[in-house]
Every structure is written in structure tokens, then in C-alpha cells.
Write a structure and sequence with these properties.
The complex is a heterodimer of chains A (498) and B (100). Chain A is α/β, with parallel strands linked by helices and 498 residues long. Helices cover 31% and strands 26% of the residues of chain A. The chains are: A alpha/beta (498), B mainly beta (100).
């Protein structure tokens, strides 16, 4: 069991079908396979433990992933936006390593005898002497395929281990082999170090869907590329969805080729989802919930549910737009209380996940799985009576005011229903009497004004007064990390200082 | 033989290759085209038995009756997959929308 088998199957089936488009360059499945083989030989010839990539998306990415798998070494793509000292810290943890590095990042990496650097361009054009493939690959399912440093909005990054068996079962269990038509193309704008980029690469190769890479996301470039490449599919994180919705509206584009968009990787504001559904009525929308430690998606809200929700006047049905949908058939999801007991639908608790795709392991640490194989996600959530999963945010973000547990997600949703609000974040700030107080940071629609009391009153009309904010602050924008995760700790620090 | 997830097998009678995804703890012999499958490197050649030539499909998952065994076809061929006298059947999965 090795992810290289997924590529091998694809190139046996459709050797000449285009697999990757990057600018004006195209690579077929056979090209990717041959280049990966040659690169695997290079890896085997050097004495290293891991293969890393410090670059934006490029054809070097699939070659790096598959060559590492072929050579039997873990692949650890890193965040190219990190400072030189942070990068050095992470590279220390995976050295001796081969580092494939983009032109713009060569100076970011401090030379060391334990790091073999190679430029992304050179990686794609191996010397003639090294174009021989190794004959075979290791198919031990326990081998590590990918090491991903979790973006962790708090604390230092942990290196999540994804074994070949996790990724192989995720892909073969959720994707039908070569199910994509020859005209299908998926636009990928997430950076290589994000689990969605890894899952997208493997799933698309196995489905036979051409990948169009967009290295530096910008909403206008994204729209232009959809039109130029007749893109049919796309995967987006929430911040991208917001910006695309704004630009689509301004440009009056309808993107007729775009049949399917999946979004996830963070909480997406309901008004944004409603807006984009109305802008692209012919497009199937999928909301996916998953974590790095679960090899990406564990639950899906499908196109049918999106259409039913947007067409409904019933608030319960409409609220399903805020749901993460139903668990994949290959995965178990359970909501547990603090003692680890399963709770009833409607009750909140911690989301636990179990299945072959779930790793729950980190390098340098013991497995985080329970003895019976459950991974505790540290995400709060609940099921409704129809079995739809709702994500309430990280348990670390829960606010405890006067002994009451309050999850910020619910309050943010309530604030976002205010017509003048475009974005909102709710965090707890220390308070002498209450332990914590609820602070809301709100971004208003351009050209509008609202008072603190107006926002507080609005929340009170939607939720119990217990959950209304004690304080409302207005900002021009909220802090997000590059993959669209709200940086609550930045807000907390800022508010604590003010 | 004892099969474990990740075990690769090749047919002696045709081009079929499979990988074990899930296996029960007891020993099993998977046949293809009427003769036992073996590890890809092993010497294994046989004639395709008459009537056992319905073929294997690349990318399809095959399961036994109680679905304790699941294998993925990684290379197609002419033989039929069986355990003893029971043919393995294609596992039908409800298609999921692309999520990443």
C-alpha cells in the first residue's frame, strides 16, 4: 500500500491524459510518473531521511510527493512564508533532508551539512544520468507518506504523520477511480503545506481530473483562470470564497464551466455562502469538514442540501447551510462529553473521529488515539436529529463566563445575520468577577455605521442574553493566517492589551 | 496464506494485479482465472481455466460474501477473482461529490 500505486494505476489507464497544468506547461500522467521515478532515484542516491519543499505550488510539488513515496521517504512540505529562523527550526526536526526550494526562498534556508538543497527548476529537469527508475517501491502500509506541520493557531507546530495506509484508504474509499470526464479540470489555489493540497493532489490524480495550479491566490486571477482553462471544479478556503464572491459580483461573471466548488478549512460565514450560491446557481457546492490528522475530509454537506437550504423559508432547513453535513460512509463521527460518553443529538460536545484514514499521530509524540481507535479532534460540535454535523469551533476557544461554557461560533453566526456586518469574531477576555467576558470584534460593510448597543441588541434578539457580547469593537478587517484560519490568539492578545 | 492490508498479489493466468485493502485473520487463497495468486516477484504461471475469464477491472474494489475481504484491482486482466468456489464481487459504492 503506497500512494505511488494511485499514480501508477492512473498512468496505466490514461497515460496521455493531461494531469497538471501550470501556466503554459502541461504534464501527462505518464510525465508525472517518469519524472517521479527519476527523482526517486535521486532521493535514493542521497543519504537523507525526509524530503521537504519550500515553495509555492508548481509541477515540482506532485513530483516531490510521488518521488518521496517511491523512494520510501516521508514528504514534509513547509510553509514558505515562515521566517528564516522558523524554517530552520522545522528543518532541524526533519534533517538530514533533501530540500526542494523555490528561487525566491533559497536565501531563507541557512546552509547546513544535513540539508541538501535543490532548486524547484532543477528538480523538474534531472540530469540524463538519473532518468532510470527504481524498479519497485515498498508497499508497507505503515510507512510514513507525508509529514505536515499543523498550522496550530496556538503553541508550536506539531508534525502530523500521515501513513500510506491513511491516505490510500482515504482516496480509494472516497474517490471512484478515473470517474472524471476528459474535460474536467480542478483549480487548486491552496498552498502545498495544507492538507487540502495533498488530498486534492491524490484525489484528483486518482479521479483522472486535470489539476490547474494557481500558486498565488488573487480573486481576479482565479476568475480569469477558470475562464481560460474552462475549469469545472475548485477547492477553496473561506477567505478565498469571500473575495471571489465580491469580485464575481463586481465583474458580473457567471463562470458557466464551473460545475462544482468545495469549500472548507475553516468556518465560512453564512451570508458569504448565500451570496455565492445566488451568484453561481448552476454550480454544485460542497462544504467539507476535516483535519490534517484525519487525512482531510470526514464529513460533507452536498449540493442537494445546499440547494434545499437556500430555497427554503424555514429557518431550520436554512440553517443547514451552516452545517458540515453527514460523515463519509467510511468514517465514524461521535460527539462526546468530558467523560467520553456519547451525547444525544442537539447536545454539544467534543467531536471524535474513527476510521482507516484517521492518523491522530505526531512525530516525536505518542499516538493520540484512544485504545479503541478514536481521535479526539478538540473541535466542539453537535448533531441535529437528522444526523447533520455542526462545528462549533476549537474547544480551546470556548469562553467560560461565570461558570457557563459559551462557544464563540454561535454568537458569531448571530452577529453575521445583521445586515451591516460582513465579518465577526468572538473571543473571551479575562475579567475579575466573571472569569471571562465576551468580546466581539466586528467588521462592518463599507459605508455603514453601527453602535455597540445595536450589535448587542441584535444578538440578544437571536440568542439568550447570557450569550450577548459584553463589549463590541469595530475593525476594518480580522486577522487570518494564509490558509484562512482566524487568528483568535492575535485578537485575544490585542484586546488584553487595550 | 495470511493476507494483510498492503499485500500485493499477481495472477499467474493473466495480467491481473491486486492490493489487499482489508483482510480477515484466517488464511485465504485468492484465485484468479482458476489458479492461486502470488506475490509479484514469485514464479507463478498457469493457464486460464475455462469459464473463469470474466475479467477484472482496474480501480474496482472486490469483496467476498461477508465483505471481510476487500481488494483493489491495480492492473486489469482476463481472469475472474474467487475464493474457493465463490466468486468475489465488485463493491458498489455510492459516488461522493469531490470534496478536495
Amino acid at each position: 500500500m503506497n500512494v505511488i500505486t494511485l499514480l501508477d494505476m492512473a498512468r496505466n489507464c490514461f497515460p496521455d491524459r493531461p494531469a497538471i497544468t501550470s501556466g503554459s506547461r502541461h504534464f501527462t500522467y505518464e510525465d508525472i510518473f517518469n519524472l517521479s521515478g527519476a527523482a526517486a532515484q535521486q532521493i535514493r542516491n542521497s543519504e537523507i531521511e525526509n524530503v521537504s519543499l519550500v515553495d509555492i505550488s508548481s509541477p515540482a510539488l506532485p513530483i516531490a510527493l510521488f518521488a518521496s513515496a517511491w523512494a520510501g521517504k516521508p514528504f514534509a512540505p513547509l510553509n514558505y512564508r515562515l521566517s528564516s529562523s522558523d524554517l530552520t527550526g522545522l528543518l532541524d526536526r526533519i534533517s538530514p533532508a533533501l530540500v526542494i526550494c523555490g528561487q525566491n526562498y533559497l536565501n531563507q534556508i541557512r546552509p547546513s551539512s544535513k540539508l541538501h538543497q535543490i532548486s524547484s527548476e532543477h528538480w523538474l529537469s534531472p540530469p540524463r544520468s538519473e532518468t532510470d527508475h527504481p524498479q519497485d517501491w515498498n508497499s508497507d502500509p505503515e510507512e510514513t507518506a507525508i509529514l505536515l506541520f499543523t498550522s496550530g493557531t496556538t503553541g508550536g507546530p506539531k508534525a502530523a504523520i500521515l501513513r500510506h495506509r491513511n491516505l490510500f484508504s482515504y482516496v480509494t474509499g472516497s474517490v471512484e477511480f478515473m470517474s472524471a470526464g476528459p474535460q474536467e479540470a480542478i483549480l487548486t489555489a491552496v498552498p502545498p503545506y495544507h492538507i487540502a493540497a495533498m488530498a486534492n493532489l491524490l484525489s484528483s490524480i486518482y479521479a483522472g481530473r486535470r489539476i490547474v495550479q494557481l500558486p498565488n491566490f488573487d480573486a481576479d486571477t482565479w476568475i480569469d483562470l477558470v475562464i481560460k482553462e474552462k475549469v469545472t471544479h475548485a477547492m477553496l478556503v473561506p477567505t478565498m470564497l469571500t473575495r471571489i464572491a465580491d469580485r464575481l459580483e463586481a465583474r458580473r461573471e457567471t463562470l458557466p464551466t464551473l460545475t462544482s466548488v468545495s469549500y472548507g478549512g475553516g468556518k465560512t460565514s453564512r451570508p458569504v455562502v448565500e451570496k455565492i450560491l445566488n451568484l453561481l446557481p448552476h454550480t454544485n457546492f460542497v462544504n467539507a469538514y476535516g483535519l490534517t490528522e484525519t487525512s482531510s475530509t470526514v464529513s460533507i454537506l452536498g449540493p442537494k442540501e445546499h440547494r434545499e437550504a437556500i430555497a427554503s423559508d424555514n429557518p431550520v432547513e436554512r440553517s443547514r447551510l451552516g452545517s458540515a453535513g453527514l460523515p463519509l460512509p467510511t468514517v465514524e463521527v461521535s460527539i462526546r462529553d468530558r467523560q467520553g460518553r456519547e451525547v444525544c443529538p442537539g447536545q454539544s460536545g467534543e467531536i471524535w473521529v474513527r476510521g482507516d484514514q484517521v492518523s491522530g499521530e505526531y512525530k516525536e509524540r505518542e499516538s493520540q488515539l484512544t485504545s479503541d481507535g478514536w481521535f479526539k479532534t478538540n473541535d466542539g460540535g453537535h448533531f441535529d436529529t437528522a444526523g447533520y454535523l455542526y462545528i462549533e469551533g476549537r474547544l480551546d476557544d470556548v469562553i467560560i463566563r461565570g461558570g457557563e461554557n459559551i462557544s464563540p461560533g454561535e454568537i458569531e453566526d448571530a452577529i453575521l445575520t445583521h445586515s451591516k456586518v460582513v465579518d465577526a469574531a468572538v473571543v473571551g477576555i479575562a475579567h475579575r468577577d466573571w472569569g471571562e467576558q465576551i468580546a466581539a470584534v466586528v467588521v462592518l460593510r463599507q459605508g455603514t455605521e453601527a453602535s455597540q448597543d445595536e450589535i448587542i441588541e441584535h444578538v440578544r434578539s437571536k440568542l439568550r442574553s447570557l450569550k450577548s457580547p459584553d463589549k463590541v469593537l469595530f475593525r476594518d478587517e480580522l486577522p487570518y493566517n494564509p490558509t484562512g484560519k482566524l487568528l483568535r490568539n492575535v485578537l485575544r492578545e490585542e484586546l488584553a492589551g487595550s | 496464506m495470511q493476507l494483510t492490508p498492503g499485500t500485493r498479489l499477481k495472477s499467474g493466468a493473466c495480467d491481473t494485479e491486486v492490493i489487499v485493502v482489508k483482510a480477515p485473520s484466517q488464511d485465504l487463497v485468492i484465485t484468479c482465472g482458476g489458479s492461486p495468486m502470488a506475490a509479484p516477484g514469485e514464479e507463478n504461471s498457469a493457464e486460464l481455466s475455462p469459464g473463469l475469464n470474466s475479467g477484472t477491472q482496474l480501480g474496482k474494489r472486490y469483496v467476498n460474501e461477508d465483505e471481510t475481504l476487500e481488494i483493489l484491482c491495480t492492473k486489469s486482466g482476463e481472469g475472474s477473482l474467487s475464493i474457493g468456489d465463490s466468486p468475489l464481487k465488485v463493491k458498489e459504492a455510492k459516488p461522493l461529490p469531490a470534496s478536495d
